[in-house]
Structures are given as C-alpha cells and as structure tokens.
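subagent[fold] <- orchestrator: predict structure for attached chain, return tokens only, no commentary.
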Amino acid sequence: MRRIGTLENSELAQRFCDYLVTQSIEASCDPETDAPDSAWDIWVRDERQIEQSKQELADFRSDPEGDRYQVQREATQIRQEQIAAELARQKRLAENERIANVSRSSLGEPIRAPLKQTGFPVTIAVIILSIIASLTTHFGQPRRSRVPGKVTLEEQVYDTLSFVDRKEFMKSGGNPFASVDTGQLWRFVTPLFLHGDEFHLLFNMVWIYFLGSVIEKLHGSLFFAVILITTQVSGMLLQVMLPDTATLQPIFQGTPLDFLAQTMSGSPFAIGASGAVYGLFGFLWIRPKVDPGYPIHLVQTNVVLMLGWLVLCITPLIGDVANGAHIGGLLGGVGFGFAGKLKLG
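subagent[fold] -> orchestrator:
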C-alpha cells in the first residue's frame, strides 16, 4: 500500500476514497496526526493503480464538489458486496481445510469429515506382528527339534500365542480355557497374529489394512485398538465355545446340513485375524445405516464379497475354517456399529 497524497479534511478524504472504490481502486484514508485540524493521507493498495490514482486525486482537487464525486451510497454498496464475497471465500477455505487431511480412504470412498489423526500406527503394527508371528511359527505348523525333549523357537512362539498351550490342554483333560484360567488373558487376542498359510495371511492383512486404516484415521488409535480387540475376543470366544464335531454329528447326521458338524464345530486352536476382520467390516457396514451422516459407506460389492465369503466358508466347499470366529467377530462389529448411534468414537 502506498500513500499518493493528502486532502484537507476527513470529509474530502472519505469522498475521494468513495469515488476510488467506484473505479475499482482499493483505497483508504487516515489522519496525518492526532490534531483535530490534521490533513488526511490517501493510501492505495495496488501498486499498478498508483499513477491512475494520482491523476484522479489531481482531478478531484480541481472540483471536489463535482457531481461525479457524490457516490457515497454506491461506494457503500460495493464495500458490502466485497465483505460478503470475503466471508464466502473464508467459508470455502474453512471447508477445504476441514476435509484437507484426506480426500479418499483406502477403500476408495471420499471422506468428508475431520480426521482424528492422519496415521494408522496400530493397523501397521498388527500387520507387521502378524507377518513376524506367522513366519516365526512356520505358518501354524511349528517344526520340532531333532533333539529329544528340546522345544524349538517355533513351538515356543506358537504355544505362547495360541489360545491354549497344547501341553496345558492335554493335562487339563481338554479344557480349552486351561491357559486363560492361569491368568494368561493375552491369549484371547494373540491368535490373530498366527496364520495357517501365505494366502490366509495375505487375505487377512489386506482387509486389516483397508478397513483398519479408515477406522483408525476417523476415530483414533485408541478406539481402533478397542474395537479390534473386542471383536477378536468375541470371535475367539464363540469359536472356542461351539461344540466339537463329535457333539454336532448326532444332531446333523442324516440331514442335508450334515456338513455343519464339521464347518461349525468349535476348537481352541483356531488361528488368524478373520474374527477381527469381520468385526471391522461389521462396524463399517452397520454404522452408516444407523448414522446416515457417517463419512464412510462401504461399496456394495465389498459387502456382497464379505458376506458371500462368510456363507461360502460354512459350506463344505472350503476347507477347515474357523467359522465361529467369523460370526462372533461380525456380531461384535455390528454391535459396535449400532453403538455408534450413541456417538461412541
């Protein structure tokens, strides 16, 4: 902003500034000193309009009472329009800043909501730990030592992370809670790090990344850890508490559903993150249904894929699958989704 000259009093200065506004020249005026009879400086913002403004000032001085300078009402209207335009611009900037953290989720869905955080460290940690644990335990088939009585690292890690230690299971006469009863509560969660083969690991980790990163960004790491652990536990509990095959066979034998004796049997040796995966899916599937304003809506193809896989695994077409963990995790996630109506997270 540059000073282009002075006028004798505030009335003339304001009249000239009003005129400049009507000529699309942004100008302002202020007194040179605090004295009542002080002259008033004229300031112009745009350097490119300095020469034009000086010429206009010279013309004004020659006829300050001219009709073309009686534009107070027009200048006031222009200033009001400028203020309204600036407020609209600031509103647009605020809206852009509100959604600037991310434009799309890992699911390809636009997120139009403020994020709790930009990173997803818990999701990454689960993926890394699952890869390490799966490789360390030879994908759920730990190799024994050639030295009699010696326990290999693969066996140690597998027995520590499984829901129940095999030796404790045998000593207790088949009690699936033998290890948990001794205070080893981590076993409700740690089976999610173990996987039976490379495809099992890849499938679960891809979904953990897609679903988990979205939830963790939107709700924060603490909420994500809670929902991950809770749905894993609910899935593991259902899987462990389901009757075994021997108990189910008399129920379904001779019926078209006889395959359920195998596919819906329980076992404390189930491994994998599928329960947690279905829990995260259940949350993101149901939450938008009870809260239409929720910023993520799963693509229908993904919903059909996940539910279709759930049903397919219960049929005899797929091999040994922990279907109880799938269903238990899904129910836990759905519960979280309905709880979202209470503004949790």
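orchestrator: received. Logging for downstream: The chain has a mean pLDDT of 90. The two ends are 49 Å apart (CA to CA).
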